[in-house]
Amino acid sequence: MAVSFKDLGLVNSKELFAKAVKGGYAIPAYNFNDMEQLQAIIMACTETQSPLILQVSKGARSYANQTLLRYMAQGAVEYAKELGKGKSIPIVLHLDHGPDFETCKSCIDYGFSSVMIDGSHLSFDENCAETKKVVEYAHAHDVTVEGELGVLAGVEDDVHAAEHVYTQPEEVEEFVKRTGVDSLAIAIGTSHGAFKFKPGSDPKIRLDILHEIEKRIPGFPIVLHGSSSVPQELVKIINENGGNLKDAIGIGEDQLREAAKSAVCKINIDSDGRLAMTAAIRKVFHDHPEEFDPRKYLGPARDALKQLYVNKNINVLGSAGHAFD
Q1: Residue 74 belongs to a domain with what CATH number?
Q2: Number of independent structural domains in the chain
């Protein structure tokens, strides 16, 4: 039986995006697969009074089970309310990189308040048609939809691409008009995964493309995927404690903050969180090889993730303090 996101205490992204565009900040979109990640995300966003987009990938649905995820999201709202002394921060439950209409429909029926249909691998006309189909079903249930134009390189869960295809500004007006999407993910130089760019390179977000898109669809909510910064101190901790991560760098946090001041109102961050948790776990195993209680290594991992996201909300996204605007 289908369930409405409203029954779970969730909100959709429409009003949050309008406030973010006007306020010059971006809402954090953090992926989760398990309880510890969820706890850390809720603690960080409640502590910083930030609105939140909880993201679930197709891989996370397979890993955690779609029924459990529904109740975890409902529990997240209650947990946030408990931490907020009776008042929950606004929480969106969002499908990240929905591969097709059927997956998006399933998520909507399971209580998601927002979905992404990723038709970036299709031709422009096919992308428009598939996205419009999702929009029509989603809007009938008051669910918001994110579409995508352009292709990000990198690997993350089920998303694989060998090279970037920058979003063409001249296509965005027609895409938005033909599909009716509520937000648009664009490709302007960010990249999926932890191994984004080689050390010594100077990766830059193509702010010129972003600003051209803003001119063509003024005030329209823009989304950045692949926006982890790959903190070198976390890579160092991992490698010093038994890991073997190859050298890589991510997108500079100063560039993300600049983008967040524009129409970019949702920034996706996943790999940095994975690095923070892995670094904490590896350090426990290195320092205490006798340890076997999961709480003794997952607890520190949760704490490290929380601190990472507190910093992101305050210093990178600018979302801190905007939960109840």
Answers
A1: 3.20.20.70
A2: 1
- Six-digit token pair at 68? 């459990």
Does the residue 325 lie in any domain? no
User: What Cα–Cα distance (Å) separates residue 232 from each residue in 101, 191, 206, 235, 270?
Assistant: 38, 17, 23, 5, 16
Structural domain includes residue 244: yes
**42 part of a folded domain:** yes
| Mean pLDDT across 273-298 | 98
- Whole-angstrom Cα distance, residue 210 to residue 223? 10
Domain that holds residue 104: 5-317
Active-site residue (options: 96, 118, 157, 270): 96
- The length of the chain in residues reads 325
> d(Cα 76, Cα 60) in Å, to the nearest integer?
16
Q: Which amino acid is at 149?
A: L
Residue type, 124: F
- Put simply, whether the predicted model's pTM sits higher than 0.85 gets the answer yes
**109 tagged catalytic:** no
Amino acid letter for position 150: G
